[in-house]
Amino acid sequence: MAPRRAVKLSLKKPTCAVCVAGVETLVDIHSDVPKGAKNFDVSGSSKLDIFVAYDSTRVTEPAGKAPWPLDTSVEVIVSADKASKDLNDLKVKVAYFGEEGGEALGRSVLLLTCVDVSLDVDTDRVGKVRRSGRDKKTWRWGPEGYGAILLVNCDKDSDNSMGPDLQNSQLMSLEDLQDMSPMVLSCDGPDEVFHSHRLVLKAPWPDSRRVRVFCALGGDSLSDYKQVLGPQRRSYEVERQPGQRQVPFYVEGLAFPDAEFPGLVSLSVSLMDTGVRTAWGLGGGRGTLPEAPLFTDTVAFRVAPWIMTPNTQPPLELYVCSVVDAHGSNKKFLDDMARLALKASCKLVICPRVDNRNDRWIQDEMEFGYIEAPHKSFPVVFDSPRNRGLRDFPYKKILGPDFGYVTREILYAGPSGLDSFGNLDVSPPVAVGGREYPLGRILVGDCFPK
């Protein structure tokens, strides 16, 4: 639950404030109290929930309609569950009384306008955005877990793209939206509130390098999707239109989890009060206070890891290389593989010499896996850093629509034998020490010691 915001009352004039649906607001009944007041009474609009919190060791709840004692431990808390239709349409009234009761010594009025501000993602992992009662700021593994999942947008959906889609700061294809996780900002309430308040979408600095967010402006053209967050932009003032109740966004991952990145990222939206506020300094000077968020809502994503496909799965495609060495061409081998592929009902892909530069070790060059989220999954080829004759084949020939690409380069050192993917494999599903590994365990190794 969001922290409570305190609103001070005044005996001289009504206080106007904004509250957020579902968020408690503390009414400061002690900020301006008439002389001699010992008790108070509170009432309000039927659409408001009003309750009094108190320390039972110091205060006894009054019977019937008797007023509450004006003890410092007594607090008045209000909340609303729906957005207001009009400005200041919710009212809280506080009356102050002396010790003997009688006529009120003073009255305060609080006029509230409720707005519905909520940032929502597929927290329940059902493939679509819906409001959830779960904690959106946390992420938990497992069948009973929760939290949205983000895909690294590493395929290439448009022929106009020079590389994987994640390299593009602009949307190159509407199909690319299917690879992104949807996110919806609810922003319901009177338009006048949003004239004096800003909605600001933010990403923490480390996370802004690993995600990119597009805002749907309405329409079906590529220009109707605007990049609003990413490596070069950490915040965005939401351009809410009059009467608009929801703003849709699409989020893409830019980096896979690895040793330096556990995969968790977060985004938040804040409702900022833009009204001019002043403060007096110690020297008597007057200055403007910085904007303060009235409310902040945060959602968490976990970037889906690259999952290696076990070799126990039925084959879909078989990749082989056409080469020539001192013994001639390997045509017989290719013919044998063609018959084997036909028998296994899988597609045979022959990499010609122009693409392999006489490098036959295609299993050392690449490994296949996939990424998966509730709304989408697709295969991803992992390109080895061995960088021999086949170094460009995965990028140029396999990367494409709904077929992603990822690689890792070794900084400050050359690749070793363990970086050849013939030495990389994954087991079938296995249990070890009482722990289940439904996706198997990755195995990496070299030849036996001599």
TrEMBL record:
It is found in: Cytoplasm. One of its GO terms (cellular component) is nucleus. Residues 115-273 form the Protein-arginine deiminase (PAD) central domain. Residues 294-446 form the Protein-arginine deiminase C-terminal domain. CDD domains: PAD_N. The keyword Glycoprotein does not apply. This is Uncharacterized protein. Belongs to the protein arginine deiminase family. Residues 1-113 form the Protein-arginine deiminase (PAD) N-terminal domain. Keywords: Cytoplasm. It comes from Marmota monax. Pfam families: PAD, PAD_M, PAD_N. It comes from the Eukaryota. One of its GO terms (molecular function) is calcium ion binding.
